[in-house]
Amino acid sequence: MANMALLSIGARALFANYAALQTVGNNIANANTPGYSRQSVEFATASGQFTNQGFFGRGVDVTTVSRAHSEVLSREVNVATAFAAADQVRAAQLQRLEGLFGTGEAGLGFAASQFFNAFVDVANNPQDSSARQVVLSNAEMLAQRFSAAGDKISELQSGVVQDLGVALAQVNTLARGVADLNRRVGDALGQGQPPNDLLDQRDEMIRKISEIVPVTTIGASDGSLSVFIGGGQRLVLGSAASSMSLISDKFDPTRVGVALAESGKTIPLTTNLLASGKIGGLLRFQNSDLVDARNLLGQMAQAITGAVNEQQALGLGLGQPPASGAPVFSTGGLRVAPSTGNAKAGGVDVASFLDVNGVRVPSVSIAIVDATRLQASDYELLADPGGSGGYQLTRLRDGLVQTIASGDVVDGFRIDIAAPLPAAGDRFQLQPVGQAARNMQLVLRDPRGIAAASPVTATLGSTNTGTASVAS
């Protein structure tokens, strides 16, 4: 019997230490596996055997295989991962934006300098048709570069929408994976031991989600891990997963937002709730960086167009009879976009458009009054705020709010509101400079139209009999 007891103790020890060696080997084999947590065997003394002489030990038992894991550190890793991913994707997009604006002879500055310098030759010799043609050629190059830059910004916007769609598809796939692992983890825990490999896979999936969208997690008693995004909206709850989708911007159909589909409802998620992760970085680039670039470029286009056309109007061209200088550039119509949430009548936003002689024109319209005062910003117009019956205008760049009436001039542009008047709560986005660069074009094609002559002219009457003459 004693020999049998010794053999039993030895066998238990061999089994236990073999398990430990197997676990060490598994750790070494998975040293480079993403998301793998180091495992270790936990030992416990086997229950002793009672005899009249006391309890005799029966060796060692393996109680479980545990993994080196910290919930606190995992949460910190997820948070850091989300912020790093947001900065990385935004930096990549900013580099693409920077590449739109060439340097040297390919830049806007060079084209503007060439255009203005060409006027020197016209001023020195107004009758020189070749000098006038050079002005128009340089004007065409300047307008084309503004327009090309505006088009490329629109292309970047399209790329952002595509990237957001890919990112959301990845989130939805990973969310379904986490939900499935929650189910499998619960089944495994029912057998009495933790499924370390499944837990590692689930943590790695959640880490990958945090690269795309910031997450918080809460564990449940059944071993499942619920995942929440956007200030508490559930992405995964137990073995059920919600899905994320793109939604159109309420003012601009080329821009998108992000929403969560839950229990048959679509819940929009604001940029503030998605401040990190790839999605947060892309949304910030779309809603801030691209808007600023488009408006700054448009402000420059409007300023040049306004200054040149104003100067043209002060002089006379070479035509006979002499006429005031016609505009050189045009930046097209100014954009006023009604919100998709505005009041409807028969499915149509009646306050957004007014029929005039069969032509639909916006009932809210804007016009440039002083191009030198234009700001690089979009504006939001709110009708009847708080039942006041007036209009509230918010400059989106800095949040400046002011009360206006139809016909008021703000930051160099006039706002006109015609009947049918907007309903209370209707919103409109005003873009005095947003589309200027993309729509900029040369409209003066005749070199003789360049107004290089003084508007003050004098001619002699055919019936004059005196000796007076005109010197200049």
Can you give a write-up of this model?
The protein has 7 helices and 23 strands. By secondary structure, the chain is α+β, with helices and mostly antiparallel strands. The protein has a 5-stranded antiparallel sheet with strand order 13-22-17-18-19, with no helix packed on it. Strands 5-6-7-8 form a 4-stranded antiparallel sheet, with helices on one face. A 3-stranded antiparallel sheet has the order 9-10-11. A hairpin with a 5-residue loop joins strand 5 and strand 6. Helix 2 (71-99) runs parallel beside helix 5 and helix 3 (108-124) runs antiparallel to helix 4. The N and C termini lie far apart (136 Å).
Q: How does the major sheet shape up? A: 5 strands, antiparallel
Number of strands: 23
Low-confidence stretches: none
Helix % is: 40-55%
- Report mean pLDDT, rounded to a whole number: 87
Furnish the topology, listing elements before pairings.
Layout: H1 2-29, E1 39-45, E2 49-51, E3 54-56, E4 60-67, H2 71-99, H3 108-124, H4 129-189, H5 196-212, E5 216-219, E6 225-229, E7 233-237, E8 240-241, E9 243-248, E10 256-262, E11 265-269, H6 277-313, E12 329-330, E13 335-338, E14 353-356, E15 359-362, E16 364-368, E17 379-383, E18 391-395, E19 400-404, E20 409-410, E21 413-417, E22 427-431, H7 436-439, E23 441-442
Antiparallel strand pairs: 1-4, 2-3, 5-6, 6-7, 7-8, 9-10, 10-11, 12-23, 13-22, 14-15, 16-21, 17-18, 17-22, 18-19, 20-21
